[in-house]
Design a protein that fits this description.
The protein has a seven-stranded parallel β-sheet, with helices on both faces. It is globular. By secondary structure, the protein is of the alpha/beta class. Helix 5 links the parallel strand 5 and strand 6. It is built from eight helices and seven strands, in the order H-H-E-H-E-E-H-E-E-H-E-H-E-H-H. Helix 1 runs antiparallel to helix 4, helix 2 runs antiparallel to helix 8 and helix 5 runs parallel beside helix 6. It folds into two domains: about 210 residues, P-loop containing nucleotide triphosphate hydrolases (Rossmann fold, 3-Layer(aba) Sandwich), CATH 3.40.50; about 45 residues.
Length: about 300
């Protein structure tokens, strides 16, 4: 007999152990009515702010995330992390496992880290990132999503995060590359890591500012700051947290809610397209008018109807 999926209050009360069990149930049976019920409840009761942490491999995202977690916990904020890793060719599981790279206290109920494999997803995220994020968002004050990397096809993090933090390494030439890739339209905050490298880091900040200046933005839009940060000595961490909080305040509750509705609709469309193709998405669009609720409830209802039609 399958293990029952608890409601949101029980998951919150059960701590990290309960959350880990539930995420396992979601991975094994994402389409069950109980799973969708829990995700529907979590979607309707968001608590935390979601931060997307992206940048090329080796830029120091995990070290930066460790420093941020330490600072957030010192300030009393609970943190959930979704760390999306490259996939093992043999097991299809997460290859690097960010839980082993983050120095967190296993006994601290205020920090939870979940590693997952990107598998064949090109967007830098795993298929279950959104359901996992939505559940964590209903439990923790801060949710961080760390992507596999960044490139022309790896900007999906903008579709799941409230605030996107883009990391660049000094001396790498990344900023010039991303001017071509269009990545500079994605971040709300840019960070030059390893600021202790001195003039090289300062020069990289100037390059990134120049690249951001080429991005097309509407008048009155948020202007992304470019910060120098060193995870090794803590320089700039407080400034980065302040910038994240400032962006959250600039969004406001209404702006964040509107953005999340758009994100949910895009997730719904991606899931239907992935299961039934573009024709299925067009057919599903005609059925959605009389269906309300979270994107998970809508996706399940449309999938059931399309499956009946296909059969």
């Amino acid at each position: 007999m399958a293990e029952p999926v608890p409601d949101l209050n029980k998951v919150r009360a059960g701590g990290k152990a309960a959350l880990a069990r539930v995420l396992g149930l979601i991975e094994s049976d994402a389409d069950s009515a109980d799973t969708v019920r829990l995700l529907d409840e979590a979607w309707a009761n968001p608590k935390g702010h979601v931060i997307g942490l992206t940048g090329p491999p080796g830029v120091g995202k995990s070290s930066l995330m460790g420093a941020l977690i330490k600072a957030w916990r010192a300030g009393g904020r609970a943190v959930g992390v979704v760390a999306v890793d490259p996939s093992s060719r043999s097991t299809r599981g997460a290859l690097l496992g960010d839980r082993t790279r983050l120095a967190t206290d296993p006994a601290d109920e205020g920090v939870f880290v979940r590693s997952m494999a990107a598998r064949d997803r090109l967007g830098g995220l795993a298929a279950l990132t959104v359901p996992t994020m939505v559940l964590m968002r209903a439990i923790y004050d801060i949710v961080v999503i760390e992507t596999v990397g960044v490139g022309q096809s790896e900007t999906d993090v903008a579709e799941v995060a409230d605030t996107v933090v883009f990391c660049v390494q000094p001396g790498s030439g990344d900023s010039l590359q991303y001017m071509k890739a269009g990545i500079m339209e994605v971040p709300h905050i840019a960070v030059v890591t390893k600021a202790d490298m001195g003039s090289v880091a300062t020069r990289a900040r100037s390059d990134v500012r120049g690249a951001l200046g080429l991005a097309v933005r509407d008048a009155g839009d948020w202007t992304p700051p470019v910060l120098l940060v060193s995870a090794s000595n803590g320089d700039g961490i407080a400034d980065l947290i302040t910038a994240i909080d400032d962006h959250q305040a600039a969004l406001g509750p209404d702006g964040r809610s509107r953005s999340r509705e758009v994100q949910g609709q895009r997730w719904f469309e991606d899931m239907i397209r992935g299961r039934f193709g573009s024709e299925g998405l067009r057919a599903g669009g005609g059925l959605i008018k009389d269906i309300s609720g979270s994107p998970f409830a809508r996706e399940q209802a449309i999938a059931k109807r399309l499956k009946v039609v296909a059969d």
